[in-house]
C-alpha cells in the first residue's frame, strides 16, 4: 500500500515522503481500517516537527483522524494508533475507540466531525458551561477548530463573535453563522468586541491560538466570563496574570480533549451521540474547503500549519471514495 512516512523531524513539506510499504498488521484489540478520508489537524504538523506531546517512533505515518471502513464494510470514525496514521491507504485503530460514522455526512465531513467538534463540545459545554443567550467569542473562527466552535455555539443559542485574519476568512466566518466578524488585520479587536457587546465583553472565549489572541481575550472577557484555552496555533504560549483573573472575576479553563479517552471514555461516546444528532438535524456540518488525493497530503499539511486554509482539508486516498459516502 502507499503511505506517507516521516523519517526525520522537520517541516511537513520537507520530511513527509510517500512510499510503498507493507500493510500494517493490527495487534490485540485493534482493527485494520481502509482509509476513506483523513482529516488534517494541526497536531499532524507538530508531530512532523517533533513538537507535539505525543512523539511516535520514527518512521511514522501522520494522520490522527479518519473516516475508515472495517473489513465487514462498516463506516467508522477513528483516531489511528500511531505509527500507522491516516495519511495512507490503510490504518490501524483500537477497536474499543472507533465510533460509527454519521449517516448525514460524507466521508470527508465525517472524518472532520471527530477531534475538532469533540473539542468544541467539551470546551463549550463541559468546561465553559455555555448557556443560550450568552456571547461566545471564537478566535481563528474560519479555521478547522474555530469553525466547529462557531457552529456549536450557534446550535447552543449563543451570539457568536468570530475573529479572523483577512477578508477571505471574514467571508467564511459570516457564512458559518457568526453574528459579528472582526478582521484582526483591519480592525482593533478589543475595540470592536467592546462595541459589539456594549462594553460588557464576551461570556465565553474559545482560544486555539494563544499569544496575542489570549492577551486580547483578557481585555474583552465579561464579568464571570470563561476563557477556554484549546491550543497555541500562534506558536506562543501565554503566561497568564492570575492577579488580573482575580480582579476581573474570570476563569481560565484548560482543555485537552484526548484525556477524556482514558479518564472518562463514556463522555466521548455521549458527545459523539450529541454531535451525530446535531449533524442529522443539519445544525452542524463540517466545512471541508479542500479534498486532496493521497499524493497531495504533504503540501496540504504544510498549508494548514502555515495558516492559509479555511475550515478543514481532507485527504481522500482513493478516487472511488470521492466526496460522497
What do you see in this structure?
The chain is an alpha/beta fold. The protein is built from 12 helices and 15 strands. The strands form 3 sheets. Strands 3, 4, 5, 6, 7, 14 and 15 form a 7-stranded mixed β-sheet that branches. It has a 6-stranded parallel β-sheet with strand order 10-9-8-11-12-13, sandwiched between helices. A two-stranded antiparallel sheet has the order 1-2. Helix 12 links the parallel strand 14 and strand 15 (312-316). The longest helix is centred in the last third of the chain and has 16 residues, at 265-280. The model is unreliable at 320-325 (pLDDT under 50).
Brief characterization of the structure:
The chain has 325 residues and is of the alpha/beta class. It has twelve helices and 15 strands.
**Percent helix:** 25-40%
Topology order in helix (H) and strand (E) letters: EHEEHEEEEHHEHEHEHEHEHEHHEHE
Largest sheet: 7 strands, mixed
Q: List low-pLDDT spans.
A: 320-325
Give the number of DSSP strands.
15
Structural class by SSE content: alpha/beta
Keywords for this entry:
single chain; 325 residues; alpha/beta; disordered C terminus
Layout of helices and strands:
Elements: E1 2-6, H1 12-15, E2 16-20, E3 30-39, H2 42-49, E4 66-69, E5 75-78, E6 90-94, E7 99-100, H3 107-112, H4 115-127, E8 135-139, H5 144-155, E9 159-164, H6 167-176, E10 180-183, H7 189-196, E11 202-207, H8 212-220, E12 221-229, H9 242-248, E13 251-254, H10 260-263, H11 265-280, E14 288-293, H12 297-306, E15 312-316
Parallel strand pairs: 8-9, 8-11, 9-10, 11-12, 12-13, 14-15
Antiparallel strand pairs: 1-2, 3-4, 3-6, 3-15, 4-5, 5-7
Helix pairs in contact: 2-12, 4-5, 4-11, 7-8
Amino acid at each position: 500500500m502507499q503511505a506517507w512516512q516521516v523519517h526525520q523531524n522537520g517541516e511537513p513539506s520537507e520530511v513527509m515522503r510517500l512510499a510503498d510499504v507493507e500493510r500494517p498488521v493490527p495487534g490485540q484489540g485493534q482493527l485494520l481500517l481502509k482509509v476513506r478520508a483523513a482529516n488534517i489537524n494541526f497536531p499532524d504538523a507538530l508531530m512532523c516537527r517533533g513538537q507535539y506531546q505525543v512523539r511516535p517512533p520514527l518512521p511514522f505515518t501522520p494522520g490522527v483522524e479518519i473516516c475508515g471502513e472495517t473489513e465487514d464494510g462498516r463506516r467508522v470514525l477513528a483516531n489511528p494508533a500511531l505509527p500507522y496514521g491516516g495519511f495512507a491507504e490503510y490504518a490501524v485503530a483500537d477497536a474499543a475507540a472507533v465510533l460509527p460514522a454519521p449517516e448525514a455526512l460524507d466521508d470527508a465531513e465525517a472524518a472532520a466531525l471527530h477531534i475538532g467538534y469533540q473539542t468544541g463540545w467539551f470546551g463549550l459545554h463541559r468546561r465553559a458551561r455555555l448557556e443560550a443567550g450568552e456571547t461566545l467569542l471564537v478566535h481563528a473562527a474560519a479555521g478547522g477548530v474555530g469553525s466547529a466552535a462557531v457552529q456549536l455555539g450557534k446550535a447552543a443559542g449563543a451570539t457568536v463573535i468570530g475573529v479572523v485574519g483577512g477578508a477571505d476568512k471574514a467571508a467564511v466566518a459570516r457564512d458559518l453563522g457568526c453574528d459579528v466578524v472582526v478582521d484582526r488585520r483591519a480592525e482593533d479587536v478589543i475595540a470592536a468586541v467592546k462595541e459589539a457587546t456594549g462594553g460588557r465583553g464576551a461570556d465565553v472565549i474559545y482560544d486555539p491560538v494563544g499569544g496575542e489572541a489570549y492577551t486580547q481575550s483578557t481585555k474583552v472577557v465579561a464579568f464571570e466570563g470563561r476563557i477556554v484555552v484549546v491550543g497555541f496555533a500562534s506558536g506562543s504560549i501565554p503566561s497568564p496574570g492570575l492577579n488580573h483573573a482575580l480582579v476581573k472575576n474570570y476563569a481560565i479553563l484548560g482543555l485537552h480533549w484526548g484525556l477524556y479517552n482514558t479518564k472518562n471514555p463514556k463522555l466521548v461516546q455521549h458527545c459523539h451521540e450529541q454531535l451525530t444528532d446535531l449533524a442529522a438535524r443539519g445544525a452542524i456540518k463540517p466545512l471541508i474547503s479542500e479534498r486532496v488525493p493521497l499524493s497531495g497530503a504533504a503540501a496540504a499539511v504544510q498549508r494548514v500549519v502555515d495558516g492559509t486554509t479555511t475550515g478543514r482539508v481532507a485527504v481522500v486516498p482513493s478516487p472511488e471514495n470521492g466526496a460522497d459516502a
